[in-house]
């Protein structure tokens, strides 16, 4: 069987690009295609000398305009991967193109916020630039959906962040947040952008999700680990895009003409976590307490520490919780710890002992007892069920 030399031109420091590459790998493992893959050793995208590439095919990230320009006249078969465009003329004319459906990404995020009970919406985007064309397409989708409902679209682009501009960027984000009607649902164009806004909310004392319900796009595990409040996110069909792109290139290598082919891949669903689990507490002390608990439950906080943060007595706080939530402060702390533990067990990235430690349980035995009492099974059983697909990590289609 003939082996083909294929270049993958992506920046694998981005979760989207990594998932596309994983989809290419999945295609190769499920077929008899024999490809020798070229990627930079550090998985970064470098175009220098690409015009001298002597391989048989290329799959490339066309969201980067420099890539699209470099490959515009390539004599090597190319399959493009990138974001969708409302204007069909924006697609490359001859290159087969596999696109994430930007409109459906934003619609799924907004529908989720509507289902969470929100009535005001905004978007946190990126500065206008050629390399951010995909973000502007998501803005266009948001604007279209809002105008369909006769609502004014509030879109904030902010600035590109760097170490010198960080303080000013956060100050501007906080100013924008304070000017929004509350409660509000905000769609960020990426999880990285959502993480920034989450930090701004926490610094400004704006409760998430009671005052700001925040959802990102990418389902990036690194962004999730770097936020104090677990971040809801739309899951792109990036692996499916990688499989589709590999299939198209495989056909081209076998003589099938694919010029001008366009495939739009819809999102997979939403990983629903705490940042959009919006409820409207009637009492501000309860809202403030839950905001504190959501950030620090897994650090082993106690009821008296929550009361100190809110600035009232422990007995008064317990009374407010009983009136509004029909449970104790300890019950809410435990629920957040349990939610964090089940989410970690579903992902299968840590041992049960590590999960117990990370989620603030005093011992594995105590976590075991809580699981048996609250969920009717042990942590191991819960993890086994998740591995067989009987449980997922808050995924909403």
Automatic annotation (TrEMBL):
InterPro entries: Homeodomain-like_sf, HTH_AraC, LacI/GalR-like_sensor, Peripla_BP_I, XylR_PBP1. This is Substrate-binding domain-containing protein. It comes from Duganella lactea. GO terms for molecular function: DNA-binding transcription factor activity; transcription cis-regulatory region binding. Residues 287-385 form the HTH araC/xylS-type domain. SUPFAM superfamilies: Homeodomain-like, Periplasmic binding protein-like I. It comes from the Bacteria. Keywords: DNA-binding, Transcription, Transcription regulation.
């Amino acid at each position: 069987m003939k082996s083909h030399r294929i270049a993958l031109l992506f920046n694998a420091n981005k979760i989207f690009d990594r998932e596309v590459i994983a989809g290419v790998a999945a295609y190769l493992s499920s077929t008899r295609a024999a490809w020798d893959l070229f990627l930079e050793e550090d998985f970064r995208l470098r175009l220098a000398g690409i015009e001298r590439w002597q391989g048989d095919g290329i799959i490339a990230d066309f969201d980067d305009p420099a890539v699209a320009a470099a490959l515009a006249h390539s004599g090597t078969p190319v399959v493009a991967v990138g974001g969708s465009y409302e204007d069909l003329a924006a697609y490359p004319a001859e290159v087969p193109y596999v696109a994430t459906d930007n409109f459906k990404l934003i619609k799924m995020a907004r529908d989720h916020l509507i289902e969470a009970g929100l009535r005001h919406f905004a978007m946190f985007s990126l500065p206008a630039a050629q390399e951010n064309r995909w973000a502007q397409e998501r803005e266009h989708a948001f604007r279209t959906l809002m105008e369909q409902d006769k609502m004014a679209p509030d879109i904030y682009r902010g600035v590109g962040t760097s170490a010198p501009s960080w303080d000013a960027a956060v100050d501007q984000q906080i100013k924008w947040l304070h000017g929004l009607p509350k409660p509000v649902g905000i769609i960020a164009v990426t999880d990285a952008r959502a993480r920034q806004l989450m930090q701004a909310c926490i610094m400004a004392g704006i409760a998430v999700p009671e005052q700001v319900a925040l959802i990102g796009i990418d389902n990036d595990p690194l962004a999730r680990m770097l936020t104090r409040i677990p971040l809801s996110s739309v899951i792109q069909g990036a692996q499916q895009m990688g499989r589709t792109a590999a299939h198209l290139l495989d056909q081209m290598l076998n003589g099938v003409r694919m010029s001008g082919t366009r495939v739009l891949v819809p999102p997979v669903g939403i990983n629903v976590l705490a940042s959009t689990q919006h409820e409207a507490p009637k009492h501000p002390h309860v809202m403030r307490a839950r905001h504190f608990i959501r950030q620090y439950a897994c650090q082993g906080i106690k009821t008296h520490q929550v009361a100190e943060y809110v600035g009232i007595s422990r007995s008064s706080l317990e009374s407010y919780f009983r009136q509004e939530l029909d449970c104790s402060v300890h019950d809410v702390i435990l629920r957040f710890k349990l939610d964090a533990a089940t989410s970690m067990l579903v992902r299968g990235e840590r041992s049960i002992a590590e999960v117990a430690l990370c989620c603030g349980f005093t011992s594995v035995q105590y976590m075991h007892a809580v699981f048996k009492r609250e969920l009717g099974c042990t942590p191991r059983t819960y993890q086994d069920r998740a591995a067989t697909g009987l449980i997922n990590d808050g995924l909403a289609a």
